[in-house]
Amino acid sequence: MTTDLAATRLKRGPDFGIRDYRPQFEQMSLDELWALYTDVDQILAARIVAKRQELDRRLEQLHHSNGPAGSSELSVRASSSGRDRL
């Protein structure tokens, strides 16, 4: 589900900022705002999952390229960083 606001963003390009939407936000109903929120939530969740998969893949490549000693050191560093809790 993509709102008209999201479609407008795609047409206008990356330089079209959130400030440019303010008049549209003020005219939107609560249902429209909620729909926009859910669209943004889904898009961001998908981006987070994709980024996590990319980082996991890159970490796996590092494990294979560094051999047993290097990979265990990377595992300790990765798990102690707290970033693996996404």
Structural overview:
- By secondary structure, this protein is mainly alpha-helical.
- It has one domain (4-85).
- 77% of the residues lie in helices and 0% in strands.
- The protein contains 3 helices and no strands.
- The protein has helices spanning 4-12, 22-27, 30-80.
- It is elongated and about 60 Å long.
- Residues 59-86 are annotated as: Disordered.
- Residues 68-86 have a biased composition (Polar residues).
Map the helices and strands.
Blueprint: H1 4-12, H2 22-27, H3 30-80
Biased composition (Polar residues): 68-86
Region (Disordered): 59-86
Structure in a nutshell:
The protein is mainly alpha-helical and 86 residues long.
Structural class: mainly alpha
Number of separate domains: 1
Percent of residues in beta strands? under 5%
Shape: elongated
Order of helices and strands: HHH
| Largest pleated sheet | none
Can you tell me the residue ranges where pLDDT is under 50 for at least 5 consecutive residues? Answer: none
Radius of gyration: 20 Å
Q: Please state the average pLDDT score.
A: 77
Biased composition (Polar residues): 68-86
Region (Disordered): 59-86
Q: Any descriptors?
A:
86 residues; elongated
